[in-house]
Write a structure and sequence with these properties.
The protein contains 14 helices and 20 strands. It is an alpha+beta fold. The chain folds into 3 domains: about 210 residues, 3-Layer(bba) Sandwich (FAD/NAD(P)-binding domain); about 90 residues, D-Amino Acid Oxidase, Chain A, domain 2 (2-Layer Sandwich), CATH 3.30.9.100; about 55 residues, no CATH class. Strands 4, 5, 12, 13, 14, 15, 16 and 17 form an 8-stranded mixed β-sheet that branches. The radius of gyration is 22 Å and the shape is globular.
Length: about 425
């Protein structure tokens, strides 16, 4: 039994973002009393503003879809990819790969979107405490996890049967429990971003598309948030930022000036906020679960945001963690080693699918194939599945993705697809 000088909870969730809110809803529906500890006060700013249809089923099951439909969020019917000098252009419509039922999702300002999810968790029975920072985590031998929690009025100790880490890239539980990390093959980058008005948009249904502009040193994202506001980010190697003395504005404007496509979109753009920067590289823990602790979303591992998979992966892993806890609760036991491995494998498989596509995007030869996918074996359609967030692929679909990777490697030694001069 836990010490009586600790507050005791069924389940504690570190973080009130999409992974934490989703996990909280499903745990509450399973009959537990979840406590969500969020270090910030909502609403708060967060980057990662583009959703994928692959997460629509969760949003509908949570009951928040009508709020999104009525909340003024722009509908997103697909995504555009272009080279910086406009030599190549590729547009993906979600309906072509996923069908009409998942033909759109939303572009969201995360302050509003995350608050909708957290409010839903409250309504479902979660207790939410904002302004609470978790400072320590330890798995005890008595079937409980102990947490130290800092707040304005002082520190407090809690014990819980289950801990879900949804703390984002802070990775609080994994770090505190000294869970080993594994290296990934994706390069280290830095993202410089902000909100702008007056940015040129697509017309018609494509007005809500995310636009990705690839240039030699990195890439831009253009995410329309409201009729006037656009999120823009430049993702570049850290050396490029250092070469500008660490000055975000100078480095960002340099990237705009050397990328004609981005420059043309921003001819009349005006900044709405100071630029921000964050490290942008993929990483993950070796395991995402221990006996009574599960890592979700970016707290398990970070996937480069090129394909806007972050929020969807967060929500899917939050639901998966809650479902696994529910099954273990019914048997009144901790997770088995096999369950921990299976949980880690399922989320790792999702990350690996995007990892392959991300590596092709950064590779010059791979990007040339990505922008000119051969029609054989329905490869363009298979890429469209991932662009839309469909990860439960059949064996034949996975083989097509593998074939795509092989063709990308061949492009390095022979011109299967036309070259993109501005990247060479």
């Amino acid at each position: 039994m836990p010490s009586t000088d600790h507050e005791v909870c069924d389940a504690v969730i570190i973080g009130g973002g999409p992974a934490g809110a989703v996990a909280g809803v499903y745990l509450a529906r399973a009959g537990l009393r979840p406590l969500i500890l969020e270090k910030d006060k909502f609403p708060r700013f967060a980057v990662g503003e583009s959703l994928l249809p692959g997460g629509n089923d969760i949003l509908k099951d949570l009951g928040v879809w009508p709020q999104l439909e009525a909340g003024g969020f722009l509908k997103k019917y697909g995504a555009d990819f272009t080279s910086g000098h406009s030599e190549r252009f590729n547009r993906y419509w979600f309906r072509n790969a996923l069908g009409k039922n998942d033909e759109h999702t939303f572009q969201v300002e995360r302050a509003a979107f995350d608050k909708i999810l957290l409010d839903r968790a409250r309504a479902e029975g979660c207790e939410v405490r904002e302004g609470r920072r978790v400072s320590s985590v330890a798995e005890d031998g008595d079937g409980f996890v102990t947490l130290g929690c800092d707040q304005a009025s002082g520190g407090r100790m809690l014990k819980c049967r289950w801990l879900v880490d949804a703390s984002g890239r802070s990775g609080i539980a994994g770090t505190q429990l000294k869970m080993p990390k594994v290296a990934t093959r994706n390069r280290k980058m830095v993202a410089i971003y902000g909100h702008f008005s007056g940015v040129r948009r697509n017309s018609g249904e494509a007005a809500g598309h995310t636009v990705i502009v690839r240039f030699k040193e990195g890439w831009f994202w253009f995410i329309p948030l409201t009729p006037e506001k656009t999120s823009i980010g430049a993702v570049v190697p850290p050396d490029l930022l250092r070469g500008h003395g660490g000055d975000l504005e100078k480095c960002f404007q340099h990237c705009v000036q050397i990328t004609p496509d981005a420059k043309s979109r921003m001819t009349q753009a005006e900044s709405l906020q100071p630029l921000r920067a964050t490290a942008d590289y993929s990483w993950r823990f070796q395991s995402f679960a221990k006996q009574r602790t599960l890592l979700t979303g970016d707290a398990a591992g970070f996937v480069d945001p090129i394909f806007s998979s972050g929020v969807m992966l967060a929500m899917k892993s939050g639901r998966l963690a809650a479902n696994l806890i529910q099954r273990a609760e019914l048997k009144k036991r901790a997770l088995t080693p096999g369950e921990c491995r299976a949980y880690t494998k399922e989320i790792s498989d999702w990350m690996n699918l995007y990892g392959r596509l991300i590596r092709s995007f950064y590779d010059r030869a791979g990007f040339e194939i990505f922008m000119h996918p051969l029609p054989y074996f329905q490869i363009p359609r298979s890429i469209g599945y991932l662009v839309g967030g469909l990860m439960d692929l059949t064996l034949s679909q996975r083989l097509r993705i593998t074939a795509f990777g092989a063709i990308c490697r061949l492009q390095r030694i022979m011109n299967i697809a036309p070259a993109i001069p501005s990247l060479r």
